[in-house]
Amino acid sequence: MNRMSVVWVRGELVQVSRGKGALVFMTLRDTKDDASFSVSMRASAFAKLDLEPQQGSEVVVQCKPTFWSRRGSLQLDAYDIRAVGIGDLLQRLERLKRTLFNEGLFNADRKRPLPFLPRTIGLICGRKSAAERDVIVNAEKRWPAVRFATREVAVQGVKAVAEVSEALRELDARGDVDVIIISRGGGSLEDLLPFSDESLVRLAAAARTPIVSAIGHEVDTPLLDLVADYRASTPTDAAKTVVPDIVVERTQLDEARRRAYSALTSRIDREKEALAAVRARPAFAEPHTMIESHAEVIDGAIASARASVTIALERARERVKALADQARALSPLHTLERGYAVVQGTDGSALTHPSEAPEGARLSIRLAGGRVSATSLGEE
Q1: What sign does the dihedral 330-336-339-342 (CA atoms) show?
Q2: Is the alpha carbon torsion for 354, 360, 363, 367 positive or negative?
Q3: 0.70 cut: is pTM over it?
Q4: Contact 86/189 with Cβ under 8 angstroms?
Q5: Which positions fall inside the Exonuclease VII large subunit C-terminal domain (predicted)?
Q6: Contact at 8 Å (CB) between 374 and 363?
């Protein structure tokens, strides 16, 4: 047995144990017969494999059998491990997953928030499926007025990708659909494979409408889950995610109303207290008292002003009289009133010497009471 050359052994990995040592230990089971082998591989070689062996993977192992006579057991010393069947499928999915990840399609900052209360929910599901019933029933329990635009499609098999994609395009183009749920129940890896199809995954990533993925059970993770805006563990979880609970919302609304009423009542009470404090001030409580005190001041000011004006007028009157008397004393008319006269020639000039009035000259004599005309008889 120990002289056997390197062989390829095909089987299913049922256990993979990676310790801190230099070896990785695995158990390889024959998928047809009830037999299994222990497999060991150097950790350095294991790390360089093109795939990451996982439990459930069907693989072919390049190895050299070693028989331990003391324990009576056969062990396979592995040099290479390659995927076949489901293992090869998982390997392809892992490569696609890495590609989409590197493109940023799984980034959290790409994911859009779900609407609080969608007008219409788009639902893509299997025909007459339990997933459809779970979503609709649970959503209507939470919000009875909820509306659905349901598209029943093939959710496994060769038509699944095309029908799901067409339904997604149609619902995404509708203006009244605010969120889209893509849902189906659990199944095998092959059953869920359409929801890891690259074209469908990229279509979902490019959709303008937020998408909720509810595919399989919680342990299932198709690639659609990773690009969706929200990944629901089950169809029921999807229903609870996309619509609020009307009972909870009513309770919260009642509580908000109560808090608002309490806050408003407290504000009104505070304003009433402030108004009462203002009204208690003397200016508002007994306004006539302040008016009366000011009225006395005003009356005194008026009396004082009147006295001042009277005195000022009397003084002005006396001043005017004195100025009038002074002007009268200096006025030529005052002199005329004492019996004097002013003799003027024909040119209106006052005469001051007899020579200015020769015999026969026409004269105008101004008296206090008027004028008289005269003719000069010459100098005496």
Answers
A1: positive
A2: positive
A3: no
A4: yes
A5: 105-324
A6: yes
Rounded to 5 degrees, φ, ψ at 143 are -145, 95
* Burial grade of 375 (CB within 10 A; 0-12, 13-18, 19 or more): exposed
206-220, pLDDT tens digit by residue? 999 999 999 977 666
Q: Measured at the alpha carbon of residue 247, what is the angle toward residues 245 and 248, in degrees to the nearest 5?
A: 65
Domain 94-244 has CATH 3.40.50.620: no
- Which residues have a Cβ under 8 Å from the Cβ of 197 and sit 6 or more positions away? 161
Answer whether 7-84 and 94-244 agree in fold. Answer: no
Q: How do the domains of the chain map onto residue ranges? A: 7-84, 94-244, 285-326, 333-375
Q: How far is CA 189 from CA 29, 192, 217, in A?
A: 20, 5, 12
Rounded Cα distance between 57 and 34, Å, is 17
Q: Which two tokens stand for residue 4?
A: 């056997």
Q: Are 105 and 205 in contact (CB under 8 A)?
A: yes
Place of tokens 């909720």: 212
Give the C-alpha separation, 265 to 69, whole Å: 91
Specify the fold of 7-84: OB fold (Dihydrolipoamide Acetyltransferase, E2P) (2.40.50)
| Helix, strand counts (H, E) of the chain | 12, 13
How far is the C-alpha of 239 from the C-alpha of 237, rounded, in Å?
Answer: 5
